[in-house]
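Hello Y.,

Per our agreement to keep a running log of every chain we model this quarter, I'm adding this entry. I've kept the format consistent with earlier entries: sequence first, then predicted structure.
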Amino acid sequence: MGRKVKYIIDLKFIEQLSEEEKRELQKVTEKFAFRTNNYYNSLINWDDPDDPIRRIVIPTTEELEVWGKLDASNESKYMKVHGLEHKYPDTALLLVTDVCGIYCRFCFRKRLFMNDNDEVARDVSEGLEYIRNHPEINNVLLTGGDPLVLATFKLEKILKALAEIPHVRIVRIGSKMLAVNPFRVLDDKSLLELFEWFNTETGKKLYLMNHFNHPRELTDEAKKAVELVQKTGTTLTNQTPILKGINDDFETLKTLLEELSFIGVPPYYVFQCRPTAGNKAYSTPIEETIDLVEAVRAEVSGLAARVRYVMSHETGKIEILGKTEEHVFFRYHRAADTENRGKFMVFKRNPEAHWFDDYTELVDEYKVSLSEVS
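Predicted structure for the entry above:
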């Protein structure tokens, strides 16, 4: 299709939709922002109303069903200065943009794309100063929005500033750009040079945390972009939520995890879809998803099987470990509160549960004594 990727923010320019569909979906886009591009649209089978790529990017009236809240993990609680979240001692998040290559319909930060939101800092100097003053921070995640939407010279300013902070050893960039517009990498040699400089000249390490949700996103162009980024010394990983109608079946999830491992982008996390407003149509029951994830892990190599099934809860990253006939098991993978670090929990099962808060009958728990092992 060539390299001219055009962004689309109005449904009237989606020629594959009927006029009736456009009128019906207008109500959705008035509430939740819409953005796609012609490259990503070319991955859709428009003859299939249930096409998984279509479900990722094209609105559905199901989003209007009242469910969840805009800030499902209460990220604002951890906002220390404008545009910076500090939830875990060693990790800071810099929200560097409020734009993405596309707006995934299940996005847990869709609030950032609303007109009245002011969480993102276009000037990150205040966040950088906070990081300088907190020597416990050894890794920084650039997120948003998608940092690769930024012009390379803007990204360069941020990376150079972080490179000058001695205690910052790792910078991670959270991005779906290789899936939605690989030409951002293929056509910008300066971006690749920036990545290579960071990895070879600063004594620090750059990670690109990708967001491939479905195997069909792994196009030849995307794979080439992956290869070019790898040659810069950047480490690539992948994370995706489990999404109803997109990747919540055995063959799709197995293929996704395997193909990622084959190209050197090992799966990192699979997330429980957050109970964000508008997301009910994408959420899967936890106890069914346990079976799916474990069935897939049993059939893939160790590199693909090391993926962790987690929830990004207000209190921390909670790993979903498994279940028995009566109980379901969780462990804090990361915890904001020291009292929860490493805590293992057993709850009575709840087949209707879609989130940690849906479990109310705690059966047992075990807290690791950090002072005894340190």
